[in-house]
Each structure stands twice: as structure tokens, then as C-alpha cells.
Amino acid sequence: MYQDLLEILKDPERVSVNETVLEHHSGGMDYHERKKPDVVVFPKTEEEVVAIVKYAATNKVAVVPFGAGSSLEGHLLPLNRGISMDFTLMNEVVAVYPEDFLVKVQPGVTRMQLNKHLKKYGLFFPIDPGADATIGGMAATNASGTNAVKYGTMKHNVLGLQAVMADGSVVAAGGQTVKSSAGYNLTELLIGSEGTLGIFTELTLKLAGIPEATVVAKAAFESVEEAGKAAELVLQSGVDIGKMELVDAATIQAVNEFKGTDFEEVPTLFLEYNGTAEATEQGIAVIKELMEDAGTVKFEFEHDSLKRAQLWEARHQAALAILGKKPGCKLVATDVCLPISQLAVTIAHTRQLLDEYKLDGAILGHVGDGNFHVAFGLDTDDRDEMERFHEFNGKMVKFAIDHRGTCTGEHGVGIGKMKFLKEERSTALPVMRMIKKALDPQNILNPGKIVEMEEVHS
Amino acid sequence: MYQDLLEILKDPERVSVNETVLEHHSGGMDYHERKKPDVVVFPKTEEEVVAIVKYAATNKVAVVPFGAGSSLEGHLLPLNRGISMDFTLMNEVVAVYPEDFLVKVQPGVTRMQLNKHLKKYGLFFPIDPGADATIGGMAATNASGTNAVKYGTMKHNVLGLQAVMADGSVVAAGGQTVKSSAGYNLTELLIGSEGTLGIFTELTLKLAGIPEATVVAKAAFESVEEAGKAAELVLQSGVDIGKMELVDAATIQAVNEFKGTDFEEVPTLFLEYNGTAEATEQGIAVIKELMEDAGTVKFEFEHDSLKRAQLWEARHQAALAILGKKPGCKLVATDVCLPISQLAVTIAHTRQLLDEYKLDGAILGHVGDGNFHVAFGLDTDDRDEMERFHEFNGKMVKFAIDHRGTCTGEHGVGIGKMKFLKEERSTALPVMRMIKKALDPQNILNPGKIVEMEEVHS
């Protein structure tokens, strides 16, 4: 396989069987057992991706697309070995259309790289998962983040894309308009398909203007449930909230230790409003009132821009902070999403479950859209701890599904959520399988993820 | 077939071969040649839909779902005769979840019926195509309307749905959360699939709060191109515009005649801002400034709520007004959508084409999202007029596609846009065909629309 791929790429630097490289591509930032691919390739062009996929199709070899490696549910595991396709070198911003609020990028561009590039236009791409993920990876999992409450998720912000399908054909889906009713929505079928239906080679993204003003505030509460209730109030008020993040005491404690910050260690809503200067002033005043109605014990503005940045950076790095508390352990982050009215009760139930299973988990999440996580640092070799985690996770997800929620709001299915998907989408799974079979009959594209197929080639 | 269906529905009132009923179900509100189905059924429950589809699958009979009959591109034509399935009797609002901003409806509910129902909750469903279409039909074409610039299209506002597939199985896709990464996005694959992949039996919709305040204004321009440029300015400013509709002189003239209004007969942008009272006052002030920068010859607020309602009603009925000008003629409404920066040039080109082809068309559209229409009343028996129309339409759509646009922003493909879809989505069409073949191997669901299949059963 190595020789064949070398003949395709004609560059020994971009076809690797080096142990360190294989190890780096043996999974994501998750707790699943790692497995090495046979070989890692680093394509630079769509033509190269096509040639590699055609080779894989002819030889029934699995291909797993790989971006920043920040998957949390096992998406990057080469379950059948084969080829890990690393997009690090396809990281060009292809074209910016500032007057159309659009940008065309290669899949290996990371969100931070993109926003650095866009700054001079006064524009930014709002989707912000915790990691500095690649746009391709973010599209593959329909990622979101703290800005989703205002700007939506990847599927709301990818207008078009090109993908290499399992037979090596290149498909252009969607386009550059904010609306279209031109045929089946292949763009959104591919977004969230986790590399199992096609491999992205180009994406057209909708951009937003960098807001004129931003105000940040913190509201402390006596319990996580009260904070959850306060979040519901904000959403029901219809105020155009920019971000609304819930962090519980344990998370703040971990962040303080990890980042040397001095945030008060109580359940807190981190809030942001952005827009024109005038709208922002009004917006945050409404939010302050709502927090007081909801019984906040302390409401504070964060006017200082450095402190403001520090606050959101701390939130973004909360997962790493949790991990930092338990050296040698692996990050485990759960993910459920609920209708607004079911959020507080689910958070309360989750806290009970954590106590019941004696797990040291931190609750944090994007409560602006009903989505929350529990983050752990777990010793994957400690069978007892892992068993307790799995039981906890199963019960938490079941509670969420029973309360009209979904088993994953933004992390995706990978292998970690497959059993819950069966429960949540029992009638949809056969249709997903029919689509997978029609578009990838040999099951070579990221096999073993989302849907189980009858036979898995290797 | 009649007897078999009567045995299924057990109600002679709901299985019809009456000539008037067949005629009513022989097409939409469009110019395509009509064709009668063999029979029209009026199911009341999902179980009945399942039984009818199973009957159709066993007997290889085509099924065409039918809502309000307001299709503009031939979606409702029973090309292979068979069954027209009318959803008029499945028009129940199943459940309202006001605290979650959600409603669950049957597909036959119309948008006006729904909003009347929701008023007491202070909520509304913002998608507003011109006609009082059914929610099922709106989902089938990924419809939108004047509110799309602020609230998005159907695909942004349908969170979950149930559909009966070609084999009679019932699939639940999506759910009740605003975010989910749980497997392939079947919801959005089915939205815009025009009844060719599955038949909706239930839809869960995202609602919005009725805004506290609304301000409406009109800005007159010397030319359509200047009005288009002004619309671009608003979008680029980032102001949270509620509606922005362009109507040209010919349209206003037709509306005045039809509705007895006295709008000035010049190219005009109809603008709306809504939100809190304070935000609205600021918002409309920003818009006024932008209009002046863009060279408006007259800017007027419409403070009077009656006049305001009249204004939007006039806009909504513009298509009917155009038709009213030519009695006995059929409504023909074109539909393209462009990236913002290409809007003005395309509108200017379209006006030239109209002159060139000596067609009396009115330009109107949702320029807030790059989408515009040309409406005609055409005598479909006048071969010369129809030929000129088709040539005009082909050139307009080609210009739009060449300027990074799409052949349909909201009307859908039906049969009227199939040849343009081939041009716009040449690489995507084979994949659409693979999906259609996998999910409807006998091609019984609304055959002959969107994608041509090898063989069409009857």
C-alpha cells in the first residue's frame, strides 16, 4: 500500500508509515481505544484526494479523513486500519468575497487561522468549538460552540461544498446563495456525516461582521439548577443573546487552577451581548434584569477587554483544565441537547447521577441552545472508574432522550454514540443505512461510524 | 384502483374520481400543461397514508402529495396519473410547546391557520410564501418568503418530521432540539425533496416571539438597479432588517389596479424592522440613513398599522395582481437567487431581457436574501408569447447561474426547473439519482420531478 500511495503522491514526505505519525493518527482527543492506520497520507490537492480514494476503492481499503485530531467520540479511529488522510496541507483560504459575506476554504484551514485571515475585512466565522478544529472536521460533525445561540451551527453556515465520493467522483453541492431550493440538499446530508459519505475538499462559508460592541457579564447562582432556569428565562424573553455559557463550581475551580485565574467558584452563567454600541447597552440591561428576576446572588459586568478575553479563553479551555487536574488521564466529554424547558431538570438529574456514581465531573455547556456537557479526566485503565462512567453516561443520555432531547448536540456520533443513536433514531437508522449503502457500497469511507453496515472491508 | 382505495379508507367522501376534484388536482398554480390523476384520496391519519402508500408500492402506482395547490413549477402534476394525495383533512395543530418555542403540526395545516392558532401564545411561524400554502408543501419545496432575511427558510425552521417512505415505513427524523449531530440529516434531505423521497405526516417547527414593535418604510428609487444597490447596502451594514422587498413600477401599478391602493408607481423598496420598541426606533433610523446614502428620491414611514398591513398584503398579492391584469391568462413566476453583490447587475440584466423579448413582466422579490422573481400573466395558448417567455427564462436563469447564483431560491425544481438543475448541479445530480433510487426504487413517489429516473412506472 505504501508504495502504491507513494506513486500517487510522488513525495515521500507526504506518505508516512513512521510510528510516531501512525500513533498521532490512531484516534482523536477521546477515551476510545486507539488503533493505528496502515499509512498516513497528506494530500495537497483535490486531484490527489481523488487519486487516493480511487486507489482505495479499487483495493477496498478504508479511508479516514483527519483534521486537527480533536474528535471526542472516536471519529478518527481507523477501525479497519487502511489510510488516514490528513488535511493539514490543504489549508488554504481559497477566496474571500467580503461584499457577499462569503469565504471559500480548503478543509484543513482551522477556525483560528481563518479568523486571523478574515480580520482585515471586518468579518469573522462565528462557529467556535472548544478546540482549534479544522473547518472540514467541524463540517463533518456539524460542530458548533458558544456562538451557536446567535449564529447557528455548521449546517447553518456552510452554503456549499465539494466532496470526493466513495467512487472518486467529485460532487459540488450547494453554492454561494443564502437560499436555494435546487434539488436534494446534499450539502446538509454531507455535513454531519462524519466522513462516511464523502470527503470534503472545499467549503463555502457564510461570514458575519465583527460586532461594533461587546459586553460580557457573569451571573452567579446558588445552584446549577437555578442557573439553568435563568438561562431558560433569557431564551424565552427573546433577547438577542450573543453567548450564554453555564459553568458549575467544579469547572471554575479547575479553570482557576489551570489558568491561574480567580473566578468565584460557584455555578455561574457567562453572558455576552454584541451588536451596535446602543443595542448592546440596552441588551445587557435587559439581561441584567432577567438575571435578577431569576435570583442571581451576584451579577457583574466584565468591562475590561483583557479580562473579557480571559473569561472566554478560560471557558474554551475548560476541558483541558479538567484534564489538567488528573495528569495521565484522558479527556472524556459527554454531550446532550434538550428543548429549552427540559434543560434545568436534566442538569439537576445529571448532578444527582454524578454523585450516585461517585464521579468527579464538571458540568459546562452552551445552555443558550439547550446543549450541555459533562467533562471528566478519566483513567481509562481503571476498569471500575470507566464502568461507572459508562453507566452514568447511559443514564444521562437516556434521561435526555426521554425528555425530548438528542444524544449529541455537537460532538457527533463516531463510535461513542452509536448505541444511543439506535435508541433515539430507531426508524431513521434503516434509511441512513440505505443512503450509506447507495453512496459507499464497499463501505470504505470511515467505516464503522454512525451506522453499522453488514460487512466491513479491510 | 378506486375500489381498492375505498376499501382502505372506508369512506366514499374521501376517495374521489369526481371530474371537478380530478381537475382541481391536475396541477398547481402554474403554467404547465395539466393532467388528471386517476383518483384523489383524502387521508385523515398517518396510518391511512401508510396503507395507501403500501397499496401504491404493491401495485406500482404513482403517489403525488397535494397541499394547498399553490405550486409554481409543476410539482403537483400527476405525470404518470395514479393517486393524488390531498392533505386538506390532516390539518391539525398537534401540540404547542410555548416554553420551547415549538409546535407540532400535521402537514395540511396552512401558514395562516397556524399563525391564527399561535397568536394567543404571543408566538408566530415566520415563513411566509405568497400563497396560504400548507406547512407540508412549504417543507417539500423549502419555501421561504418576505421574512427569510431575518428568520431563514423552511430548512432553518423545521426541527423534526415524520414521513412515510416509498415502502410504507414511517421514519422520524430530527426532533425538538435546536441543535443535533445525531447521524445523517434526514430532516434536511427530505425538506426540499418535493415529495419524491417521502411524504410528510407530521412536522415540528421552530417558532418566534411576536415582536413588540414593527416599523415599516418605503424608499423610492429612480431605477430598479439603484433600488437593488440600496438593498445591498443594507445587507452589508449588518443591520438586523426584518423584511426588504423590491417592487418595480409595473408591479405597483398592477397592485394599485387590483387592490385599489394608491402607491406611487416607481421602483420601491418596502422595508420593515421589528424588535423591541427601542431597537426598532434605532434600526429604522439606520435604514433611513442607508437609503439616503443610496440616493432614494423619497423615503416615507408607514406609521399607520392599517396602512402597514395593507402594504404587506399588497406585496403578498402582487402575483395575483399581475394575473388580474390579464384575465384568462396563467400566472408565471420565475425564481432565481444570487450572492448579494450580484443582485443589482442581475436585476438590470433581467429588465433588459424583458424589453428584448417584449414581455410585460413585473420584477419583485425578496432582495434581502438575493432572491427575486419576475411575474407574468401569460396566455399559454399563445405559442409565440410562451416561446418568448421560455427564451427569456432560460437566459435569465443562465445569467444567474453564471453569476454564482441558483436556478431557484424558493419555488423548487418541479418539472419547470429540471433542465436548469442539470446545468447548475451537474455533478450533484448523479448523487441525487442514487439517493432517489435507494429510497424509492420503484419511482412511485411524485415521479418525474427534480431528477429523471431511467424508467417511470405507472
TrEMBL record, chains A, B:
Catalytic activity, EC: 1.1.2.4
PROSITE patterns: FAD_PCMH (PS51387)
Enzyme class: oxidoreductase
InterPro entries reported for this sequence: FAD-bd_oxidored_4_C, FAD-bd_PCMH, FAD-bd_PCMH-like_sf, FAD-bd_PCMH_sub2, FAD-linked_Oxase-like_C, Oxid_FAD_bind_N, Vanillyl_alc_oxidase_C-sub2
Pfam families in alphabetical order: FAD-oxidase_C, FAD_binding_4
Segment forming the signal sequence: none
Cofactor list: FAD
Keywords: FAD, Flavoprotein, Oxidoreductase, Transit peptide
Gene Ontology biological process terms from the UniProt entry: lactate catabolic process
One GO molecular-function entry: D-lactate dehydrogenase (cytochrome) activity
Domain FAD-binding PCMH-type: 33-210
Sequence similarity: Belongs to the FAD-binding oxidoreductase/transferase type 4 family.
Protein name (record): D-lactate dehydrogenase (cytochrome)
